[in-house]
């Protein structure tokens, strides 16, 4: 059986996770939030007290279970939705995600999921590294202010306290960190389509990608693939 995949990349709070989750629901595919995996790894590292700056301190990943159910990540059986949004996780996730051993391990897990399921996967290196042969690829952007406003609304649901200014600073810092890291930096794949969600709604972005993907699958069936 041939499985299909959609890759959606972009910086923090660009709308990619919301779009990917809605798209997966519409297609009845599994939604893989790779950013949640890095956040959960950061949370666990903080919880067990490892040296976050040591790239080789993450051997616990060898026995850590990641499962996506109902569009949410469960790590070792625990729903990480709220825990992943803690400030100490946000402050350290870019550092953790920059470590080569961490990225190699999580990329392998992500690729294994995609080999066995139809997936919509979002992150920062999906189209360039994780799913180089995805059926369609998108790179989503938005202004820093729009992204901070979205993140503020999202975090209110979890009872976390941030100001708009703090979130804008955090987003700028993460953009710089993710784009400048030496290994698998955030960048648009050559064959990815750019979408600016400052200009269109999440609903419009979902419809755009859905229609493009369905057209591609229809073309494949005509070609006998």
How can the largest sheet be summarized?
A: 5 strands, parallel
Average pLDDT taken over every residue:
92
CATH topology: Rossmann fold
Report the radius of gyration as a whole number of Å: 17 Å
First-to-last CA distance:
11 Å
Keyword list:
225 residues, alpha/beta, Rossmann fold, five-stranded parallel sheet, three-stranded antiparallel sheet, 8 helices, 49% helix, 15% strand
Description of the molecule:
The protein is α/β, with parallel strands linked by helices. The protein has one domain (5-214): Rossmann fold (3-Layer(aba) Sandwich), CATH 3.40.50.300. It is 49% helix and 15% strand. The chain has helices at 16-27, 34-48, 87-97, 100-116, 126-130, 144-156, 164-180, 202-222; strands at residues 5-9, 30-33, 66-69, 72-75, 78-79, 119-123, 136-141, 193-196. The strands form two sheets. A five-stranded parallel β-sheet has the order 2-6-1-7-8, with helices on both faces. Strands 3-4-5 form a three-stranded antiparallel β-sheet, covered by helices on one side. A hairpin with a 2-residue loop joins strand 4 and strand 5 (78-79). Helix 2 crosses helix 3 (87-97) and helix 6 (144-156) packs across helix 7 (164-180). The longest helix has 21 residues, at 202-222. The protein starts with a strand and ends with a helix.
